[in-house]
Amino acid sequence: MTLHTEYYNELRLLKSTPAKVWFGLLLLVLLVIPTALEGYLLNLLTLAAIHVIIAIGLNLLTGYTGQISLGHAGFIGIGAYTSALLMLKLHLPFALALLAAGGVAGVFGFLVGLPALRLTGPYLAIATLGFGIAVGQILVKWESLSGGSLGIHPPKPSIGPLVFTSETHFYFLSISTMLLMTIGAANLIKSKIGRAFVAIRESEVAALAMGVNLTLYKTLAFAVSAFYAGIGGSLMGHLIGYISPDAFNLLVSIYFLSMIVIGGLASILGSILGSILLTALPYFLSGIKNLPMVIYGASLILIIIFEPYGLTGHWMKLRLYWRMWPF
Amino acid sequence: MLTQLIVSGLATGCLYALVALGLVIVYKASNVLNFAQGDMAMVSTFVTFTLLETLHIPFFWAVLLAIVGAFLLGALFEICLLRPVKHPTPLGLIIITVGAQQILYGVAGWIWGYDTKAFPSLLSDLKIYRFGALVISEVNLWILIASVLLMLALLLFFRYTRLGIAIRAMSQNLITAKLMGVSAHWTLSLTWGIASVLGAVAGILIAPITFLDPNMMLNPLLKAFAAATLGGMNSFAGAVVGGGSLGILENLVGGYLTPELKESVAFLIIILVLCVRPSGLLGRHYKHRV
Amino acid sequence: MRRVGGTSWQFRRFWLPLFSLAAGLPVISAAFAAEVGVTETTIRLGTYQPLSGPAAPYATLGRTLAAYFKMVNDRSGIHGRKIELLIRDDGYNPANTRLVVKELVEREKVFAFVGGLGTATGLAVMDYLNDNKIPHVAPASGYSGWSNPPKRYIFAQSINYAVESRLLTQYAAEQLKAKKLAIFYQNDPLGKEGLEGVTDMAQKKQVPLVATISYERTDTDFTSHALKLQRSEADTVLLWSISKATASLLKEAAKIGYRPQWVSSLVNLDPVMFKLAGEAWEGAIVASPYTLYDATEAAPYREFMKKYLPNEPIGGFSIGGYAMAEIMAEALRRADRDLTREKLIGALETFKNWNGVLAHNITWGPGKRQGQNSLFFSKAVKSEYIKISGWFTLD
What we know:
By secondary structure, chain A is an all-alpha fold. Chain A has helices at residues 7-11, 17-36, 39-64, 72-89, 94-116, 121-141, 143-146, 167-190, 192-202, 204-209, 214-240, 250-263, 268-285, 291-306, 310-324; strands spanning 158-159, 162-163. In chain A, a hairpin with a 2-residue loop joins β1 (158-159) and β2.
């Protein structure tokens, strides 16, 4: 609806003054939330923020680049264990461990991306599925490192003199990491790299013909996505205070895939909406046996059939409707 | 011990092959990885259980009814869930089967509960036949016989019946097949029905051994994915060969190396095959057109 | 940690008496009535159970807890209060356990936990509950880490794997006169805790342990396991395995004509084994930490199941749930009407060789947090279990 007169306009994240104001208001709300919410809900919100990080990473890979991953739980697990083990065994400071978690997961993402160069669609799904399950099995078997299926307790993180002990601390840690990573992703998408990702999704052959280096960008997409998952995994481990290989199974991979499908593929807003919805769902459905699975399954199917663009698609339509109103 | 391990591995492998065949048929016809294949089979097995235990229908009729039910379940799956999708993408279709899997699992838990049940069987698990030094149980013998018969029937169906040829034609080129007068809709539903029946047979055969609960098909399904990958996702023969060799390989690793590695064989195979020869042993390498 | 969380404890311990001295009795009763999760008419308890997911059959335990408290309430409750049990589904996933337990503590403000199910799930919240001074009575898990080292607010009840495996081996060596022992165990830390105990005791009793065969939780084909056991020529095989795997192994072994004396962990003391393993289960010896469900003394349990849980199977998980619930009810009875968490702890510490309908020989005390240390053996004969030994305690 707004025409851009300059290329720079296209690249800016917040295009109009109202957008800036809304963003400012959002920040303000995020800031005061801890004073208003009780521990459990705050905890849930913190978890949602961490889920957003992972979902955005997955969306970069699946939504933007068009590469399926059914093994994201593997990357999350690698991140969680890397960060916990570095702090427990090498006594590294948290900030370094967090970055290392992303880094190590990213390296694994790169490695998974290599065979993915030759695979598409269902084959990639199976390959990543195999990877995800393999990570879980290795974590179980490699007891001397991972503590086996009994799991380990990641320590409470601290940055400098600041020790993150309470829910509020964790909330701010997760929310600020999430904001940083979201802005990073939004910028990435608008850069040359982001456009290369989308080109690969639309047609690999065409992208190649346009001079997109497939090897570079495909493995990069995997690495970046895994980096996000690793960071998310690390935060999740420290938040919960306990990790075990069981917590990173195939269902978890499917859970995150559902988040971005329900929220909307190739959309940052979609990743956020999907994560919040799926994190909050169990809260409303707790205590009803079996129903959550059925509702969850049914919503996946209904969204694919009726609203392929997910919640974002719906939001766009609504916005368009009001903008065009009364026509 | 070697032959013993191979024969019992082959029996397990046949079950993997049946589930894998279901996956491959569906994949060839509609380009979908069916994550609900396992739980469709699980539901069919539970239906057989109810027919036998609650309604006291004789074994033969109960199995026959359950197979008809499985066929309908598969066909309905295609008609109700896949056909309405306007712009199918591989990811979208996978998510639909995942959603269906969750529903089937939840509903099965609801109706039949999560506790382990013993599946009544005509065949004795303890009765054994001896062929020289080789010992084979009645159950395993029947698994082998039933699977081989079913696979032969399938081979004949795809070779010589009009419907079978139509399905194959469709999986090669949908548009040309349509132009040649194949009714794509009906053929697709039929394919899904057949795949579901294959799963149901595998479920009924496996239930006396692994017992009955909503989780029973989770592991066989993952193994079937590995088998299909090993043999080639787009090859019927590949699924059979892949299933059989996976079953044998697992048992050999368990028997001669260490049982701890047995479960990892399947996933090592997936990763190895996809790195070295993504099309699998017998599959053709697919080409991508702009 | 102690120091951070200690303030309210100090408050209660040092300042409260001063206040009450100044203001007289009303303050005390007001303060006690304000204990979290306790009102004039109700006591609110919590538990986490796998209502959905792969471990869902275990949730029978949670439903039994709820039904038992319903029975208690029907009989006018405890000290005039009804018990309210909130069950939350964690899907057997430790991350979820953490979430639902936090919800129970912070939103629902439960007084204490009882019978939370699972080892990994429990470990995810063990320190959280202990640090926040919320009692967890009888977590449903045999992991020895619950009571070793002892934690003030965690009262482990189930006999732990380390003790159980030693008792099993001792029985096989002394009473069954085993010449060659073998163990079949699940390959995870809990299975290994069993393996450790068996190896240790076999060495002490000087019985050769000729085979240690492990299986994976996901295994379905047990041919190679049975063949290996047969070749080891063990005359007594200890089963440290869950029902499905046990049944499959026994059938496989029967097929190849291998019939040693099976001695099983208490996990398999379940009528379902007769259905799963059929004739192969005949003659197996199983450990039992609770009074046998078909014994005459256990009649109240069977009546309870008929009346309150007609659709749940009689078996290991309802037996465990029943025992845990009766222990909790007894503890609440022993703590008097002015209920606080500290009083509950005090009441639990008075348990000495206590017997309920099913629970047997429960002892806790200051610094002692492992409630049960004894078991007896029964034999599977024609679809029922028959007690064949007295109670054994590890010396």
